[in-house]
Write a structure and sequence with these properties.
The chain is α/β, with parallel strands linked by helices. It contains five helices and eight strands. It has a single domain, classed as P-loop containing nucleotide triphosphate hydrolases (Rossmann fold, 3-Layer(aba) Sandwich), CATH 3.40.50.300. The termini are far apart.
Length: 201
Protein backbone atom coordinates (compact mmCIF):
# COMPACT_ATOMS: atom_id res chain seq x y z
CA UNK A 1 0.00 0.00 0.00
CA UNK A 2 1.75 3.13 -1.23
CA UNK A 3 -0.17 6.37 -1.30
CA UNK A 4 0.08 10.04 -2.17
CA UNK A 5 0.17 12.23 0.93
CA UNK A 6 -0.88 15.31 -1.04
CA UNK A 7 2.23 17.48 -0.72
CA UNK A 8 2.27 20.90 -2.38
CA UNK A 9 5.36 20.25 -4.50
CA UNK A 10 5.11 20.02 -8.28
CA UNK A 11 5.83 16.30 -8.02
CA UNK A 12 4.02 14.98 -4.97
CA UNK A 13 6.15 12.35 -3.25
CA UNK A 14 4.54 9.10 -2.31
CA UNK A 15 5.20 7.71 1.12
CA UNK A 16 5.25 4.12 2.31
CA UNK A 17 5.08 3.53 6.04
CA UNK A 18 7.29 0.62 7.12
CA UNK A 19 7.14 -0.75 10.66
CA UNK A 20 10.40 -1.80 12.29
CA UNK A 21 9.42 -4.44 14.83
CA UNK A 22 11.40 -6.81 17.01
CA UNK A 23 12.36 -7.51 20.60
CA UNK A 24 14.12 -4.94 22.73
CA UNK A 25 17.90 -4.84 22.15
CA UNK A 26 17.60 -6.46 18.71
CA UNK A 27 19.21 -3.40 17.11
CA UNK A 28 16.22 -1.65 15.51
CA UNK A 29 17.16 1.89 16.50
CA UNK A 30 20.82 1.49 15.55
CA UNK A 31 19.66 0.15 12.17
CA UNK A 32 17.22 3.04 11.73
CA UNK A 33 19.93 5.66 12.05
CA UNK A 34 22.40 3.61 10.03
CA UNK A 35 19.88 3.66 7.19
CA UNK A 36 19.15 7.36 7.69
CA UNK A 37 22.66 8.76 8.12
CA UNK A 38 24.86 5.85 6.97
CA UNK A 39 26.82 6.01 10.20
CA UNK A 40 26.74 4.34 13.59
CA UNK A 41 24.85 6.39 16.15
CA UNK A 42 24.91 5.59 19.86
CA UNK A 43 21.35 4.85 20.96
CA UNK A 44 19.45 4.12 24.14
CA UNK A 45 16.57 1.71 24.53
CA UNK A 46 13.48 3.05 22.78
CA UNK A 47 10.51 3.81 25.02
CA UNK A 48 7.74 4.65 22.57
CA UNK A 49 8.88 5.03 18.99
CA UNK A 50 11.30 6.78 16.63
CA UNK A 51 10.37 7.81 13.10
CA UNK A 52 12.56 8.86 10.18
CA UNK A 53 12.04 9.46 6.46
CA UNK A 54 14.33 7.57 4.09
CA UNK A 55 14.59 8.54 0.43
CA UNK A 56 14.98 5.70 -2.04
CA UNK A 57 16.55 5.54 -5.48
CA UNK A 58 13.02 6.18 -6.74
CA UNK A 59 12.70 9.95 -6.33
CA UNK A 60 8.91 9.68 -6.19
CA UNK A 61 8.94 7.43 -3.11
CA UNK A 62 10.00 8.00 0.49
CA UNK A 63 9.97 5.32 3.15
CA UNK A 64 8.70 6.42 6.55
CA UNK A 65 10.39 4.05 9.00
CA UNK A 66 8.67 3.58 12.35
CA UNK A 67 10.96 2.06 14.98
CA UNK A 68 8.56 0.80 17.64
CA UNK A 69 9.84 -0.06 21.11
CA UNK A 70 10.23 -3.80 21.66
CA UNK A 71 9.95 -4.09 25.43
CA UNK A 72 7.29 -6.48 26.62
CA UNK A 73 5.02 -3.66 27.83
CA UNK A 74 5.30 -1.90 24.45
CA UNK A 75 4.36 -4.87 22.27
CA UNK A 76 0.67 -4.53 23.07
CA UNK A 77 0.80 -1.13 21.30
CA UNK A 78 2.25 -2.51 18.05
CA UNK A 79 -1.21 -3.28 16.70
CA UNK A 80 -2.16 0.40 16.70
CA UNK A 81 0.44 0.99 13.96
CA UNK A 82 -0.64 -1.93 11.73
CA UNK A 83 -3.49 -0.35 9.71
CA UNK A 84 -1.22 2.19 7.96
CA UNK A 85 1.67 -0.20 7.33
CA UNK A 86 2.89 -0.80 3.78
CA UNK A 87 5.50 -3.28 4.96
CA UNK A 88 7.13 -4.81 8.02
CA UNK A 89 10.85 -5.03 8.79
CA UNK A 90 11.28 -7.50 11.66
CA UNK A 91 14.71 -7.30 13.28
CA UNK A 92 16.13 -10.33 15.10
CA UNK A 93 19.28 -10.53 17.21
CA UNK A 94 20.75 -13.60 15.52
CA UNK A 95 23.37 -13.97 18.26
CA UNK A 96 21.00 -14.07 21.26
CA UNK A 97 19.61 -17.56 20.72
CA UNK A 98 18.06 -17.62 24.19
CA UNK A 99 15.42 -15.16 22.98
CA UNK A 100 14.64 -16.76 19.62
CA UNK A 101 11.54 -18.49 20.96
CA UNK A 102 10.30 -15.14 22.24
CA UNK A 103 11.06 -13.51 18.87
CA UNK A 104 9.24 -16.38 17.10
CA UNK A 105 6.17 -15.84 19.28
CA UNK A 106 6.02 -12.09 18.73
CA UNK A 107 6.66 -12.31 14.97
CA UNK A 108 3.87 -14.81 14.41
CA UNK A 109 1.53 -12.95 16.74
CA UNK A 110 2.03 -9.80 14.66
CA UNK A 111 1.66 -11.54 11.30
CA UNK A 112 -1.57 -13.21 12.35
CA UNK A 113 -3.17 -9.83 13.00
CA UNK A 114 -5.78 -9.17 10.31
CA UNK A 115 -4.35 -5.73 9.48
CA UNK A 116 -1.04 -7.30 8.40
CA UNK A 117 -2.41 -10.13 6.26
CA UNK A 118 -0.62 -10.04 2.91
CA UNK A 119 1.71 -7.19 3.92
CA UNK A 120 5.26 -7.54 2.52
CA UNK A 121 7.79 -8.66 5.11
CA UNK A 122 11.56 -8.43 5.51
CA UNK A 123 13.28 -10.33 8.32
CA UNK A 124 16.69 -8.96 9.26
CA UNK A 125 19.20 -11.31 10.90
CA UNK A 126 21.13 -8.68 12.83
CA UNK A 127 24.54 -8.86 14.59
CA UNK A 128 25.99 -11.32 12.10
CA UNK A 129 29.53 -10.25 13.01
CA UNK A 130 29.28 -11.77 16.49
CA UNK A 131 30.68 -15.27 17.01
CA UNK A 132 27.92 -17.85 17.26
CA UNK A 133 25.30 -15.83 15.38
CA UNK A 134 22.80 -17.92 13.41
CA UNK A 135 22.91 -17.72 9.64
CA UNK A 136 19.92 -16.42 7.70
CA UNK A 137 19.05 -19.98 6.69
CA UNK A 138 19.15 -21.26 10.27
CA UNK A 139 17.06 -18.31 11.39
CA UNK A 140 14.41 -19.18 8.79
CA UNK A 141 14.08 -22.60 10.41
CA UNK A 142 14.12 -21.34 14.00
CA UNK A 143 11.44 -18.74 13.29
CA UNK A 144 9.34 -21.19 11.24
CA UNK A 145 9.01 -18.61 8.47
CA UNK A 146 7.55 -20.97 5.89
CA UNK A 147 4.32 -21.01 7.88
CA UNK A 148 3.55 -17.46 6.76
CA UNK A 149 4.12 -18.10 3.04
CA UNK A 150 1.84 -19.39 0.36
CA UNK A 151 2.08 -23.16 -0.25
CA UNK A 152 5.08 -23.97 -2.43
CA UNK A 153 6.91 -20.69 -1.69
CA UNK A 154 10.23 -20.42 0.09
CA UNK A 155 11.84 -17.45 1.81
CA UNK A 156 14.39 -15.58 -0.30
CA UNK A 157 17.74 -15.21 1.47
CA UNK A 158 20.02 -12.26 0.83
CA UNK A 159 23.37 -13.33 2.25
CA UNK A 160 26.62 -11.39 2.37
CA UNK A 161 25.49 -8.50 4.56
CA UNK A 162 23.54 -6.54 1.91
CA UNK A 163 22.32 -3.08 2.82
CA UNK A 164 18.81 -3.64 4.20
CA UNK A 165 17.49 -0.49 2.51
CA UNK A 166 17.85 -2.32 -0.80
CA UNK A 167 15.48 -5.04 0.35
CA UNK A 168 12.66 -2.96 1.79
CA UNK A 169 11.55 -1.07 -1.36
CA UNK A 170 11.58 -4.27 -3.40
CA UNK A 171 9.13 -6.02 -1.12
CA UNK A 172 6.79 -3.04 -1.06
CA UNK A 173 6.14 -3.67 -4.75
CA UNK A 174 5.81 -7.42 -4.39
CA UNK A 175 2.43 -8.76 -5.37
CA UNK A 176 0.28 -8.67 -2.26
CA UNK A 177 -1.39 -11.89 -1.26
CA UNK A 178 -5.16 -11.74 -0.98
CA UNK A 179 -6.27 -11.67 2.67
CA UNK A 180 -7.13 -15.26 3.63
CA UNK A 181 -10.39 -16.21 5.30
CA UNK A 182 -10.23 -16.20 9.11
CA UNK A 183 -10.04 -19.99 9.26
CA UNK A 184 -6.74 -20.17 7.37
CA UNK A 185 -3.21 -19.00 8.10
CA UNK A 186 -2.15 -15.62 6.68
CA UNK A 187 -0.35 -15.76 3.33
CA UNK A 188 2.06 -13.24 1.90
CA UNK A 189 4.54 -12.88 -0.95
CA UNK A 190 7.95 -14.51 -0.69
CA UNK A 191 10.21 -12.28 1.36
CA UNK A 192 13.93 -11.77 1.83
CA UNK A 193 15.81 -12.57 5.01
CA UNK A 194 18.66 -10.06 5.09
CA UNK A 195 21.78 -10.07 7.22
CA UNK A 196 23.58 -7.22 8.96
CA UNK A 197 26.50 -6.73 11.32
CA UNK A 198 26.14 -5.04 14.68
CA UNK A 199 27.63 -1.58 14.98
CA UNK A 200 29.41 -2.39 18.22
CA UNK A 201 30.37 -5.44 20.21
Amino acid sequence: MVWDMGTRSSKPQKQAHVLMLGLDSSGKTTLLYKLKFNENVWTVQTVGFNVESLDTDRSSLALILWDIGGQRKMRSYWKHFYPDAAGVLFVVDSWDQKRLEEAHKELHRALHHEALWGIPLVVLANKQDLAGALSAGALCEKLDLRRVLKPGQNPMRAEGNPHPALCVPLTLYAQRAAPPPPSTAPARPAFPVCTADSSRK
